[in-house]
């Protein structure tokens, strides 16, 4: 399933290379030029982190790196703003619930 725009009446979309990465241990794919958050959004993944104070799910919000809604652990580094971080081949992306604490799915 993809939520990516495939055809448009006045715009052309060039076909970029597929980028392989893992999200919470699952092998997934994005497209060259994607940010981590946009690749996850395209895959239907809406929850990117958890609110530290209220423990609620957070998703794609500002998309310009000003908030902390998209903070995730990327290649072992916590608090990465995934809305402005370009996707790279082999990245390991994990959900973050606290100041760098991994969210363990139950």
Give the arrangement of secondary structure elements.
Elements: E1 18-23, E2 26-31, H1 36-42, E3 49-50, E4 57-58, E5 71-74, E6 77-81, E7 92-94
Parallel strand pairs: 1-7
Antiparallel strand pairs: 1-2, 3-4, 5-6, 5-7
How would you characterize the overall build of this protein?
The protein has 106 residues and is mainly β. It has a single domain (18-94), classed as Ubiquitin-like (UB roll), CATH 3.10.20. It is built from one helix and seven strands, in the order E-E-H-E-E-E-E-E. Strand 1 and strand 2 (26-31) form a beta hairpin. The chain is globular. It starts with 17 loop residues before the first strand and ends in a 12-residue tail after the last strand. One of its GO terms (molecular function) is 2 iron, 2 sulfur cluster binding. It holds the Pfam family Fer2_4. This is (2Fe-2S)-binding protein. Keywords: Oxidoreductase.
Question: According to CATH, what is the topology?
Answer: Ubiquitin-like (UB roll)
Number of strands: 7
Radius of gyration: 14 Å
Helix content: under 10%
The CATH H-level homologous superfamily: 2Fe-2S iron-sulphur cluster binding domain, sarcosine oxidase, alpha subunit, N-terminal domain
| Mean pLDDT metric | 84
Low-confidence stretches: none
The CATH class is Alpha Beta
Instruction: Tell me the major beta sheet.
Output: 5 strands, mixed
Helical segment count: 1
| Structural class category | mainly beta
In quaternary terms, these chains amount to single chain
> What's the SSE pattern?
EEHEEEEE
State the CATH architecture. Roll
Distance between the termini: 25 Å
What is the 3D form? globular
The number of domains:
1
Pfam family, one: Fer2_4
Organism: Candidatus Xianfuyuplasma coldseepsis
GO molecular function, one term: oxidoreductase activity
Protein name: (2Fe-2S)-binding protein
């Amino acid at each position: 399933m993809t939520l990516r725009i495939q055809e448009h009446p006045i715009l052309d979309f060039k076909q970029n290379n597929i980028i392989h990465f893992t999200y919470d241990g699952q092998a997934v794919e994005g497209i060259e030029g994607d940010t981590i958050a946009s690749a996850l959004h395209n895959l239907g993944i809406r929850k990117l982190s958890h609110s530290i104070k209220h423990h609620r799910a957070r998703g794609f919000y500002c998309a310009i790196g000003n908030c902390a809604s998209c903070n995730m652990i990327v290649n072992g580094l916590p608090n990465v703003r995934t809305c402005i971080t370009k996707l790279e081949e082999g990245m390991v992306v994990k959900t973050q619930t606290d100041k760098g604490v991994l969210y363990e799915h139950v």
